[in-house]
Amino acid sequence: MVNRSDSVSLPPAVRRVAGALRITGWASFWVQLVLGIVSAVVLLFAGSNLGTTARNPLNPTSPAAANPGTGAGLLFAVLALLGLFVAAYWAFRYTRLARQLRTPNAQVRPRRGDAVQTLRIGLVINLVGMLLAILGGQAIAGSLVLKSFEQGFAIFSGNPLRFITPLDLFVVQANANTTLAHFIGLVATLWLLRSVNRQ
Length: 199
Prior knowledge:
By secondary structure, this protein is mostly helical.
């Protein structure tokens, strides 16, 4: 841990950037981690219930209804969630970078270019994760639209799986949480880039 007397000897711009990295890094880390855990629990719950509802319990020989928790929607949602945990780890790295910037030894202190490169990698992680979450959201929404058109036939076919269920909406909520977390990571990283470039 660095003494207050050592941090006073730091240049004001370095102190400002280190403070911004520390505060924003911790805030981004915790928000992304909490939203990621909530999304993971919801997706695990939805995934564990998919196998039990894959076929119509009233008519086991009928084909399974399209479920937003299966196929491309679930694949993209899970990939976006994995990307979110990588983004949370990267936000934690911002706090480590802040600690390195506060060192009194200017020789071992990271350069401005190193900080910018770390932030750019964080931007790419969040952008890719957000793209995956958006693709997952589109696939999930498409399957829900298809399911809503099939609801009229569900009355006549006796297949309750053609109705939109709370489980379907859980998958939508999990993907929305992941999208929000990646957006928060993007905003935090862009703000940090602005702080670093203002030196």
